[in-house]
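Fold this complex.
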Amino acid sequence: MKTIVLSCLAVLLLASGTACSKRPVTSAEVVAAASPALPQDPGDSRWNRAPEFSGALLLQDLVEPRLMTPSTAQIRVRALTDGTNLAFRLQWVDPTLDDAAAPSRFPDGCAVQLPRDVAGETPAPQMGEPGRPVEITFWRADWQAAVNGRADDIQSLYPNASVDHYPFQAPAAEPGSAAQQAMARRYAPADAAGNRRVGPRKSPVEDLVAQGPGTLTPAGQSRSSGRGIRSRDGWLVVITRPLPAGLTSGKRTQVAFAIWEGSHGEAGARKMRTGWVPLLRQSGL
Amino acid sequence: MARVFNWQIGREMSYWYPESRPKRQFAAVFDINKCIACQTCTLACKTTWTSGRGQEYMLWNNVETKPYGFYPLTWDVKLLDMLGAGRWRGNVYEGRTIFESAPAGERVLGWRPSSEDYAYPNTGEDDCAGRVDHGMSLSLPHLSWFFYLARICNHCTYPACLASCPRASIYKRTEDGIVLLDQARCRGYQECVRACPYKKVFYNPMTGTSEKCIACYPKIEQGLQPQCFVNCIGKIRLAGWVSQPQQARSENPIDYLVHVRKVALPLFPQFGLEPNVYYIPPVHVPLPFLRQMFGPGADHAVNLYRNAARDPDLAALLCLFGSTESVVARWRREGETVTGSDDQGAAVVRVPVREPVFVRPAFDPKFRVIRTNCP
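Structure:
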């Protein structure tokens, strides 16, 4: 009897091994594979060098306002590092394209979060905690659309909109002059306050730091880059950020991911997220 | 949730933050009976503050016709329906506020209008509540009625917008109680748009942040009334400072109207925000409608206002509406003259309580002409 059981077990193991060899290599942690160059194109074949991490997403249901009904179920992540930067490719299923922000319209988005201090105690996964900051790189579909060349005007959101007049476009204001631009900024209060949330931009990502829910603040300078494209069934987004200080070859830190589904009204705290996932910098380079 | 006291509903209630009242509270009284919906206030605000890109649809000040006018569509009836019926026992509201009925995961019971909901700012304009049939005669309240409701941000004591913001981007100024949205901090989540029951926070799609009425604070800081007040053709508005009931002072015009005479009432006090724009309700409208909109004080306010012409002090104070650009902190009637003073007690305006009346005979015998309708 014992021989029969063992034989069956051996057959099962062989069968599962055969099956695995046909699937992409998967991992229980995010492994940043060494790569001499980091592709910015989400469709680049070099991403296949890294094993794929696939994780179930959780509701952000810990702090108000919470997300009470689930949307995006799963995230797939591959990571590469060239020894200077750390690149992630995030992939998720999203049949609806939401790449604009307007009243009651929200863009799709994603974010990568790492503890600032690799060596110290890991902060709370929910946006860090006081004294233990986290670094977040945030990508938004409407920012990507702006980078891709969408016009910065109201007609890009409402094609039939008709505007009679903006004061800063009065004939008396010389187009492009300093006085005219200053006047235009006065009528865009957030812009005047240095808070450009939408509009023309060079990058679809933003670097942020946080020390707990509600404390998200832009980092002093944005050093990350990114690019998102629509896949057959959702989004493929590359986010490249500096390699955390102290994350030497073969060492581990933590990483967390979040996804916002625009058509589900998700923004800010209303999101699907992971907890901390171990992030291994593979040896090499 | 903290426990705070809301005098407008006569009881303690739940709120996201502990009670923290400003040193003094910006407030206003709007006399609905005098509003003609000329929208001069709307345009005064529009040209001053919201002429920019992404602000095209924004009306920080609007005037809508009740009962069928809404901006945005259904703003009040939708929330009333979500909130359900609530009972008043005397001056105590026994129903639940929008903070107390917040669903799981939310800080406030609310809803968010779509772009389309903002697309019809003059819907229901001048529409009567009923048909005007042949042979109908005037009576009070009118069988068929409508009235104009001018609205700005209420600079609430317990703002829902402020409570709902997960980033604390909205704050209430300690010096004057004006509620402001920090344009440097906002990230455009639109939680405030969802939470404000009066729908007076607007998302700007060209800046990616939300914006709201600022009570023209640069003018308030100079002792001047906001743009929508001083441009009001019907002189329906008076800006000033409101005290808590136990600290009310008769010489403060807002206190006198709100607390002493109780002729000016908050808009939907049952929502629980302790709004600080007070309305003298329209006298021709059925009382059940007014009670729902302004609370249980509607009957008293209507009766008092109907008698205002024979009420020397009330009549005198109403004459100060629209009489000066300055904020009137104190007032005093002496005989047939009413005086408004600033914070320091210096007179800023003097107004006769009754304008002199000249009667021109209909027929001019010298020229043998009827002059009544001559310009």
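The first helix of chain A runs from residue 2 to 22.
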